[in-house]
Design goal:
Blueprint: H1 16-25, E1 27-30, E2 34-40, E3 47-50, H2 59-76, E4 84-90, H3 98-119
Parallel strand pairs: 3-4
Antiparallel strand pairs: 1-2, 2-4
Helix pairs in contact: 2-3
């Protein structure tokens, strides 16, 4: 596939140790759509991790959340802060809406980075 539109693997978090590091010592911020956790990484790009629990809904709903957040991250990547690991999860009671996620993502990541810089 020469015209591959997927989010490349190097931009995704997959290892449990990475998630534990973000949840354990990262910054937390939320808005009406998403809850985000972040920590600085030593990479030249940011990575995305997703945590969508069964409280968000059935398998179809959870997979839809993951697809929409991943796509919003992929499309907004040039506008997002570089050098961070972000773990995002939907807020309880929120409905999966692509436009709202795209609107929420840059503001939420900027707020997370600001909180991380306030710590140091």
């Amino acid at each position: 596939m020469a015209d591959d539109q997927r989010l490349p693997a190097e931009f995704r978090m997959r290892r449990q140790a990475d998630f534990d590091r973000v949840f354990g010592s990262g910054a937390v911020a939320a808005d009406s759509m998403l809850v985000g956790h972040a920590i600085a990484n030593d990479l030249p790009h940011s990575r995305l991790g997703l945590s969508v629990s069964r409280k968000a809904g059935g398998a179809v709903v959870r997979n839809r959340w993951k697809r929409l957040i991943r796509e919003a991250f992929r499309r907004n990547r040039p506008d997002l802060p570089v050098g961070y690991d972000f773990v995002l999860r939907p807020r309880r009671g929120a409905t999966a809406d692509y436009r709202a996620i795209c609107h929420s993502l840059p503001r939420l990541t900027a707020r997370l980075v600001r909180r991380l810089s306030e710590r140091s």
